[in-house]
Amino acid sequence: MQTERSSNLADGLIAGAPIVLGYFPIAFAFGVAATGHGLTGWEAFGLSVIVYAGAAQFLALALVTSGAPVLVSAFTLVAMNLRHVLYGPALMKRAGPVATRRHAWAWAFGLTDEVFGAALGQLARGRQFSEPFMFGLGLAAYASWLSGTALGAYAGGGALQGWPVLEAALGFMLPALFLSLLLSILNRTQLPVIAVAAVATVGVTLLWSGTAGILAGMIAGAIAGVIGLGGRDAA
Amino acid sequence: MRLEVLTLALIVGAFTWAFRYLPTRADISRLPQGGPLARFLAATGPAAIATLFTASVVPFVQGGMPLPLGLGSIAVLAVFGATRSVVGATMAGSAAYGLGVWLLPPG
């Protein structure tokens, strides 16, 4: 359990360590892939600075290099990021009624999947919500993402070709991070919600697409919570 | 930076920011405890993380690498169970996965 004192920026930076470790190799891989797909280093870095959404950025590479129209590509990527609308209310609900959100316009820019998961894990372990803490958490993750992208773009396409084991290990960093985050918030009452989300994700991914599977998993799991599978008084 | 890449980044970046920020402004303070919306929001976190983990693992399962995937997952479970450290578990899982790939016979 964490102490009950208010969390500050430094607490957020420290809590962001797992994300830093998880993001850097993935961002590095993105930088390598982007330059390998013919983007300049600045274009790769610009995507990370402005979009800051890993899966969407990798998909953007495929769309840009396939010559898809900009609006079609934008619509696809926006739809892929739609899941983020669920995070703000869920986080604020967990943070409690006294949580301030005056500067949310700034820290919410960094409310990625992993930052949301890490924030929720910290709150579940007794951490008090604060905006400086959210800034710290987001800043650590963003800095890691940008520096990884820059280094990957600098290394250039094919930088990992001679290191297949390292490439494989880096590729498993994100699933390992998600599993760790899941374990950090796990409690017995939410197991049915988790099971429903997992089954829906696999089913819809296999039948339709990965993006649809992600949306379906989140919505199915949340609906399972509404009908009481996650406990009647879950908070 | 090409104009098409910049345009794409700006459109997607603006929508993504809006998706992340605007819902934080929703007034949820008057939600009744245990009500349907409160339960929906409470379940969203575990559902989202379970979904993202599942979605990130599916390609590994489809790729037919059960040994590395098993080693990586077991390492995450074991290290998290022993240390409660997200950092340690993530690093151990990644290292164990790499070890599994290294142990696999080539081809």
Explain this structure.
The complex is a heterodimer of chains A (235) and B (107). With 235 residues, chain A is mainly alpha-helical. Chain A folds into 2 domains: 178 residues, no CATH class; 49 residues, no CATH class. In chain A, helix 2 crosses helix 3, helix 3 runs antiparallel to helix 9 and helix 4 packs antiparallel against helix 5. Chain A is globular, with a radius of gyration of 18 Å. The model of chain A has no long low-confidence stretch (mean pLDDT 86). Chain B is 77% helix and 0% strand. Chain B starts with a helix and ends with a helix. In chain B, helix 3 runs antiparallel to helix 4. Among the domains of chain B are: 28 residues; 43 residues. Chain B is flat. By secondary structure, chain B is mostly helical. At the A-B interface, helix 2, helix 3, helix 4, helix 5 and helix 6 of A face helix 1, helix 2, helix 3 and helix 4 of B.
Name some characteristics of this structure.
heterodimer; A: 235 residues; mainly alpha; 2 domains; 71% helix; globular; B: 107 residues; 4 helices; 77% helix; flat
- Cα gyration radius of chain A (Å): 18 Å
Query: What's the main sheet of chain B like?
Result: none
Give the largest interface: A-B, 103 and 72 residues
The residue-averaged pLDDT of chain A reads 86
The total of helices of chain A stands at 13
- Give the ordered list of helices and strands of chain A: HHHHHHHHHHHHH
Low-confidence stretches of chain A: none
Low-pLDDT stretches of chain B:
none
What general outline of chain A do the C-alpha atoms trace? globular
DSSP helical segment count of chain B: 4
Strand content of chain B: under 5%
What is the radius of gyration of chain B computed over CA atoms, rounded to a whole number of angstroms? Answer: 20 Å
The percent of residues in helical segments of chain B reads: over 70%
* Approximate shape of chain B: flat
Structural class, from secondary structure content of chain A?
mainly alpha
Percentage of residues in strands of chain A: under 5%
Helicity range of chain A? over 70%
Organism (chain A): Tabrizicola oligotrophica
Family (chain A): Belongs to the AzlC family.
Membrane topology (chain A): Multi-pass membrane protein
Pfam families (chain A): AzlC
